[in-house]
Structures are given as C-alpha cells and as structure tokens.
C-alpha cells in the first residue's frame, strides 16, 4: 500500500496554494483526532492506510480533469442529489473535503491523517473548458400554494370569435367608413368588449336569443331609396351601453307637435282673417269674401290650439313649482286656454255677422265678448306675474354664472353651464310673458268692443290681433330654443376655442362642431344638447335636492322650482324641463 501511495505522490501535479492551505488545516485536524483514538490495533492502522490511499487516488483523478464526474459520484453516494451538476457545468461547489497531505509528507503519515478526516467531496475548480451552466432547479416551496382562481381569456376588441357579434362589428365599421362616421364609430370602438356586445344586442332587438346581422340591418338601416345606418340610434345604444342616462326629458311628443301646428296655423289664419276684416271695414269690399272664408277656419284652429294648451297645462303642473309657476299653469295656461275658445266664437260670429242680420246673432256676440274679457284678463295677470318672476330669476342666474366663472373647477364649470342655460330660458320666458300680457290686453279690449258696439268690426279685429300676437310669441320662443341648442353646445364643447387651432384654420365651424360631438358619442346637435341638459339636471338633483349645496339650490329655485328634500322634490325630470322650457 505504501509503494502505491508513493507512486501516486510522484506522478500527480503540484498542489495549488489553496489546496496546500486546505491540506494543512485537514492535517492538523487529523492529528488531533488521531491522538484521541483509543484503538492502536494493527487492523485499524491497515484500514486507515487503505482509506488514505483511496483518497489520494480520488485527488489525482480530479486534478487530471475528471473532478467533475468524481464530485457528482461522491455527492450522489452521500445522498446530496442537489449538489450533483450536469456534465456541462464548469464550476462545481461542494462542502470542504478531506485534507490533502503535503507532497513532502511520508506515505504512512499521510494515510493516518487522511483516514481521520471524513470522506467528503472537496471544492474543485475544473481545468476543463467552461460550458454553459444548466439552470438550477427551483427549491421546493415550504407549503403548496393555493390554486389561482380561473380567469377567462379576454374578449378581443373586435369581438372576433363571438359568432354574430363579430359580423355586426365588422359591418358597422365598414358602414361607418362609407358614410363618414369614423369618429362616431371610434367612440363605440373605445367601449369595453362587454359594452359593445350590450350595444349590439340592443341593435339586434334586445330580447332575441341570438345576434344575427340580418336582424341588426332591419333595425338599424333607414331610408326608402337612399339607405343608411340610423346613426342616431347607434349613438343612443352606444351611450346606453356605457351606462349613460340618455333619456331626453324635453323630447317633443305627438301632443307637442300637434300644439305647435295648432298655434302656428291659428296664428296665420287668424292673421289673414283679421287683415281681411280690417280691409273690408276700411272699405275694401274685395276683402270681404276672404274674411268670410277664413273666419270659420281660423276659429276652428284656435279651438284646437286652446284644447292643446289646456292639456299641456294639466300635464306640466307639478307640486314643486313656485307659486307663480302654479298660477301660470292653472290660470294663465288652463283658464286662459279655455278663454281662448272665445276666439273660436268670435271668429265664427265675425263670419256670420257679415252675411246675416246682427240682431239674429246678438247672443253669440255677447258670449264671445264676455269670454274675450275673461280670457284676456287671465292672460294679463299671468303674463305680468310671469314677466316679473322671470326678470328676477334671470338676474339671479346671471349673477350665479359670473360667480362660477371665478372658481374655474369642474363643479363651478357645470354650475356655470346650468346657470347660463337656466338664465337663457328665463329670458325667453320673460319675453313670452310680456307678449302674453299684451295679448290679454287686446283680448280684453276686443271683448269689451263686442259688448259695447256689436256692429263695429273693432271687437273681432282686436281679438284677431291677440291671436296673431300669441301665435307669433310662441313661434319666436320655439325658434329661439332651437337656435340655442347649437350655441349652447358650442359653449360646452368649446367649439370657438377649437376653431382657433392650426389644424382647424381652414375648416368650417359646422364641421368642427360635428367632429367634437361625434368624439363624445353623439350624432347630432340635438342629441348632444339633450344629454347636456340631462347631465346638468342630474347634477343639480344630486347636489341640491339630495344634498345641501347652496349654489345648486339657488339655481333650482331660480328656474321656478321649490326644493323639498324630504319628498325628494323636484325630480330630475322636472329640473331638466325647467332648464329647457
């Protein structure tokens, strides 16, 4: 055994400084351990020498480039699989190993010292060329992690793979490009996939089980000859899907259109009939047949307008109205509307009295005169009271608007818009009430003339003038409200500021406005205006009725309403109506 150890010692490579230091430390430890051993028997010494020779052979093999393999083998034998590296590893790290005896030590001494140390794989740096290190296996967690909740895969923005939804989406996108509604479609496209699917279901009919492109086309395409997508519907469905309250609280209904038509036609025919009557009274005999023919028609249309007015007075009455507002609905609209039927009687009487003996129609003339006085008085009282309240409210709202301009935050901006809109409405109502008061005065004078001088044409002429004035005042207010929509939208969307941008320098205002409203998801000025009014009404209701914001309450009261928080009055719907009407 000694000669085998000697031959190995002469053939191995010189030990490195690190190896010599490690061997010296191991030698000292082995010497200390050997001194403490109790058994000096020959078999024990022989076993120690065998172990030392084996260790020397291991060291020589490692130093000659086979250290990596031997280290893995040793680690595996010691039950340390986590220390076993793949053959591609260039650097292997392990627990410090048995001591390496100096080259000058005697074989027997080396064998004894090495035998005392535990047999472990040493730290070895291989001299072989380095290979890429294999990734280390992750350490096992102390405890198993809880399974993650299942997350369904996201829906693609273009709804691809969602059956009919994808087809409808592609068709809408194609139509938007053809009809120059790409900006409006971009609003829809910015919705979440779920919101888009909700909008498409609404376009599909809402209650149908499956989305089908043909169903959507039937519901969304309009026109007999030139067919196109109903982009107004598209806008409403898109904004509904984004959880926006799109209800138009001021939308005109069939009864409103009937009222507009009755007022307009009664004013025009009344004017024509009155003009003919005046001409005939002044000696123009050719105008007499015109007066005779138009009189009954004007009277009938006046009666229709009066019925519509009475109905609207009942429908628009609300307990949250101010005292003046209630009086205007009951007396000015309802009572005076009933009195307006006197114009029907006066028109009919005016036609009859031109072709028959006045004595036969004295009763009808007296009834028309009395109704004219009563109705005219109601209009006068209502018009004067409304004018005074509108004037005071308009001033309060203009002051509120100026106050909000100084703040500049979003709340102040919204309140400023509400004050501006409400102030504009109060100004329009002030002008209309002024005309109503004058109309009442004319009706009183005409009724009195009929009673005093039945044969005189003065009475019918004054009543006809009252009809003309009332109709003109209503039409003027309607026109102002229509034009205000555009100017108010321009104010809120800051269209004038957008016009000053370099890219809009040569673009018309209408085109810039349309671009801005489509970016907000609207297809028309009317839609945008209605949504602004709805949003402002909701803001005032939340802060001024449910809340206790003094500025919001001041605006609500200045548009002719009384706040009752306990009853949650006025409603959002009533606030929206009074902001606009």
TrEMBL record:
Compositional bias (Low complexity): 26-36, 94-134
Region (Disordered): 1-134
Chain intervals with Polar residues compositional bias: 50-66
Top-level taxon of the source organism: Bacteria
Keywords: Membrane, Transmembrane, Transmembrane helix
Stretches that traverse the bilayer: 366-387, 436-455, 461-479
Protein name as catalogued: Uncharacterized protein
Record organism: Paenibacillus lignilyticus
